[in-house]
Sequence to fold (712 residues):
Amino acid sequence: MPMKISNEQFKERVSKGIHDDFMRGAVSSAQDGMGVKRRIAAEELGNWEDWRSHGEEIRQHVLENLDYYLEQLSNNVAKRGGHVFFAQTKEEANDYIRGIVREKQAKKIVKSKSMVTEEISLNHVLEQEGCEVIETDLGEYILQIDDHDPPSHIVVPALHKNKEQIRDVFTEKLGYTKTSKPEELAAHAREKLRQEYLTADIGITGCNFAVAETGSFSLVTNEGNADLVTALPKTQITVMGMERIVPTFEEMEVLVSLLTRSAVGQKLTSYITVLTGPKEELNVDGPEEFHLVIVDNGRSNILGGEFQSVLQCIRCAACVNACPVYRHVGGHSYGSIYAGPIGAVLSPLLGGYDEFKELPYASSLCGACTEVCPVKIPLHNLLLKHREVIVEKEGKAPISEKLAMKAFGLGAASPTLYKIGSKLAPTAMSPFKDGDKISKGPGPLKAWTEIREFPAPNKERFRDWFKNREEGGK
Amino acid sequence: MRVSLFATCLVDLFQSNVGKATVELLERLGCEIDFPESQVCCGQPAYNSGYTKESKEAMKRMIDTFKDAEYIVCPSGSCAFMFHEYQHVFKGDPVWEPKAKKLAQKTYELTQFIVDVLKVEDVGARLEGKATYHTSCHMTRLLGVKEAPMKLLKNVKGLDFTELPGKEQCCGFGGTFSVKMAQISEQMVDEKVCHVEETDADYLIGADAGCLMNIGGRIDRKGKPIKVLHIAEVLNSR
Fold:
């Protein structure tokens, strides 16, 4: 699945989202539940703001010294007998992985959840090679068997489906005959998946954090699927975005503490898997061959620029869970595998403004995202920064808006023009007035008054009242 | 104490009653009010739409307008925050950055000024009825003013106060967002209105004209019997 998940226009996608009652019910109850759990988990840890600052510091330090840590990481992976490949583009990453598949004559591949492999459309490439690719994260598995329904959330990819819908997918695609109880659904998926692990030729994983000092990488899951993906197949390929590094285990512990609490309100997830290279002589399980694919795919263009802080992201989705816009439109409306505030910042950077120019405007700039981000990415400021780039550098803003803002610039900056304009407002608006309100406004007011009343300008401006009062000696 | 009022363009044009209440309230608390006439809009509509260049002219005008002020008080958390934001907009500008910093240091949102500077928590107001309060996003998250309005409202005699469910959720105003993304904004404001109705309140109180215009406009359109009041009006009622 590529980063772009829809050919529909933004407005159509939003309209579809807004009218999808099932999805909206699922999203709002998930947001409410996860919001409360996140807050409790943060309070339990104590000094949450200090933890956030520490997390930010670690991420910034890594980004400032990324060249150093990438070299250290790759040297240490190589020392432990692993292969490291730097892919500048998604094509390079896919070509490299395709090469391994061909060399191993692989037929079946099991995967644990990975956003970066979605970003580079790896599954599509593998399927073209004739491989059977099986997603083992339950959410991803549901979407995969439902004719490749795109993910709508970076942590909970099938968030937009409720349990009845999932039961229906299982019934139709897997011959499932039981109820919509989550335990029964999960047990069925587990049974199906177990056989796949045992017969897979290659296991592919993402990476939550790679530890530069040891050449290890970690996976944070609640299902244990990543353990099986990395333990059973003979060949393992781990794909990571180039920024997902920590210097040592000490920093990893801080970030994992922030990640699990922010993502799902847990102190720790059920599994935190750490692996270092291929299996050694005395190991019972683990891959015989290990490949680490480090993907750039536009990230180095972000480094050093005004959007660098977006690379601090640890993919917890706390911003998604707090976002009032996401709440009403759902993940698919964003048209990108990266939804919510982080998606609205990241998608135009990785996928271009042509595809994703509406996303930075899909925010009321309420700041809920920035407030919850565990590594203090100023998300709403970055959205604002995007708008500035769209207007000033990309020239992609509508002409009517440009003219209006030009007029604003002149009018707002000149007290004389402002005074004349505001004095004339009641007269100019009088044809549209209905008592003290405007119910059908002209021009830009039309969109406002389709939903709400707009107040008619006061006959006496505040400034006139004040002046009269001063002159009349109060 | 001399206070320069930054009324905001919404109050100047559409809600002069909020401006009047602010003046009367502050005078009763012993302040001498001045309204610098050359004040215009703070530039936020253009700035938040990405038109930084255009908005800078308005910002410079405002900095000059208020350069001699001792205290600047604004009956809007969002517009007061904008004055605090200028220093970041002019970062690196040798002339305007220092001026913008000075402006920020003396700018307060109305309730923040009353509680933190005047050190008053009971302004002697009285209003009978059931009320709830909308915590505006820019005021709470960006300007960081959370407690002051609550402290003041708690001391309004006759007011039966109920907390608004989902109070931290944005009402869907967001300046130009409300028209640019009208479909989404509608869903947000509808949820807000539902929450207000759940409280069974006679009054919805807020401290930001923008949010109140949005929620109030939707309440009106739906014909709900809820009166929308700015906190200045509540604190000025006796």
Summary: Chain B has a mean pLDDT of 96. Residues 22 and 32 of chain B are 12 Å apart (CA to CA).
